[in-house]
Design a protein that fits this description.
By secondary structure, the protein is mainly alpha-helical. It has one domain (17-176). The protein is 95% helix and 0% strand. It has three helices and no strands. It has helices at 2-6, 9-113, 119-176. It starts with a helix and ends with a helix.
Amino acid sequence: MNWLAAVPAWCWWLVALVLVAGGQQYRVVVAQGETAEARTELADYRLAVAENSRRVAAQARAEEQRRQKLADEEGEHARKKLEEVTSRATAAESAAGGLRGEIDRLRAGRAATCGAIATQQRQAGASAVVVLRGLLEESDRMAGDLAKALERSQIAGKACENISAAMQRTVDARQSN
């Protein structure tokens, strides 16, 4: 123990300081290694999250495009149906115009064949024909308008039903996967 006493006290303090500093340096090196590992894991996690986000966004875009395509197809189908209904309504209006012309022709023929003796009867008959013609024209016009409105609402409703059914099939298919 003599040799221990020969070492001055400040040297012992210096040895203790070196040991503590060495221990602290070891802890710093280990912490730096753990920090680098954590940064690598964080970068990998961020990359995975970005990839998942990109994939989900692409799937959402694809689904939106598919739904838009479906809606566009149904809209085109409905537009074609409306054009068909409009052409039929035009044909019906043309036929109604022909009927009106026939009524006018009959009325003119009736007026020409009536004699002077039946002037009062002719006036009563003519006024009845005029009233009937007006009623017929009005009822034809109203029937045409109602038929157009009914066809349009049926086509629009059918298009909505088709879009809804297609969307439901997509949801059901995704749920079954």
